[in-house]
Amino acid sequence: MLDAVETALEGERESISQQDIYHSLANHRIPAVRVVYRILSKSFSTDLRSLALFRMAIAVTMLIDLYGRLDGFSFFYTDDGCFPVEQYKQVRGDRYSLHYFSGSFEWQGFLFALHAVVSVLAFFGVYTRVSWLCMWVLLISLHSRNEMVLNGGDHFFRLITFWGLFLPLGSVASVDSLSRLPRSGKDKKRRRGLLSSVKQLFGQFTQPLPENGRYFSVAVAALILQFGFMYWFTAALKSGRSWRVDFDAMEKALHNHLFSRETATLFMVLPTSVLKLMTWFTFWFEVGAPFLLFVPIFGDYFRFLTIVSVIIFHGVMGLAMSVGLFTITPMVAMLGLLPPLFWETLISWFSSSSEGVSNTPPKLSHRLYGRRRVPQEVVVLMLILVCTNWNLALQHPTWWPLPKLEPFVQMIRIDQWWAMFAPNVPSMSFWFIHRGTLKDGTKVDLFRDRKDPATISLRPDVASHDFRTQRWRRFYTKFSDEIRNLKDRGRCLPQYLCERWRENNEWDPKNPLIKASSEMCVESWQDYEFYKPVKPRHRPSKLIPDYQCRWPDVPDSSAQVSDGSSQDEY
Description:
Helix 13 (218-237) runs antiparallel to helix 17 (272-292). The radius of gyration is 27 Å and the shape is globular. It is 52% helix and 7% strand. It is of the alpha+beta class. The chain has 24 helices and 6 strands.
């Protein structure tokens, strides 16, 4: 059986070599050209099975992201929420979005459902290029609809999805690849059942490929460099004392209760010298790790160790801090760069248990290697230069002006800015108080549903738990920054909190909730301790002083507080 597989691979290898556009470079008469080609092909190549795994991981992450966005769907995306389409377009009219066509619940829900469907199709590799293109268009449309709920992880997710447009993601372990197999004999019978088809699809991960599955392309270089841009440019922006002099950035980040989880206490008990060492390691890991992804000598070994290191690094980060997709997306990008060495080892493990799985090697499309990809390679190379120029321009605007293609960059959403915890980790942390007043003067907590009025102003046990999802946390932080620009729309938040409080509490029409206020409390990172609620050390700054709740079914809801007690208590 293995001899038959090897014979099929030899024939495939010959056919590919004749059509490969880089074949002439590999056998060029000038030695220097051959050497340069071999270095580049080893540095910027990946395995086709890794790209298939990358495709599936992106699709699963997309579905998880869409599910997470359902919490706050009406508030963030429909006209009934804080950002009606027409008003938001006046603020961000330079974006293009299918979600701008209508702010109705039905239209936004249809786009979410369509997004989920094409993500499932992309996962299984059904018309992979078309489904991936649709998924990317819907993703940039969704991001452009409301940017107040995005963070760096969302931007990186959008960018690696974009580079996936130029990669052969459906060559292996996809419905597209199964359709290229011969339709006769034993294989045909296996494909009659859904279960056997799925088994055959995933079985291609453990099948040998021509050239060990190695695929060299400018698009692979783009994926590696995009990861490098995120690390290199954020490291360049970390020029403050926290990172370069005092080395207390990690300690401050763990004490920032807007991000830190309960598990951050596992790191807080470490000696200060260890936390400083972690700060030093984080900075230099961001500088050096991307280079190890394209080392030409022993490249597969260096890359695999780097991928494992990146996954561990972001896994530990996600364990200690709540940073949304920024934990997951770098791991997903690394899956697409797993070297052939990984799959060869995997095949050797599974070779003894391959019974029941087709031993027919996947038949690769010749478009992977043919001359048709020449224009694509040129386009990707130009896009890499545009992204490099963009990052340099934002780093040094006086030295390096923004490219004249800025409208085009904004349209396809390859704009990027990497400034997480830069130039310094914030030395101040904050939390929010949302206070409501009933008609009889009773104070209520609109945010945490605390029953005792005396505890409304106390700092929460774990502030990051105040937010149901990372989207809400991001919204509150952006809301506090941009409250002055939101004008009347800034009052949609207290009205939403009033309505939520009414849904979750016993409603008395004779004693309705008539007033709401939003405040922000600030404290130094050195004052924060988990599970020790305290009153604010400084008087909270009022984001929205007094908001009259609107209740159509309560005619006198705008009446004043009966006892005149509208003064806040701290």
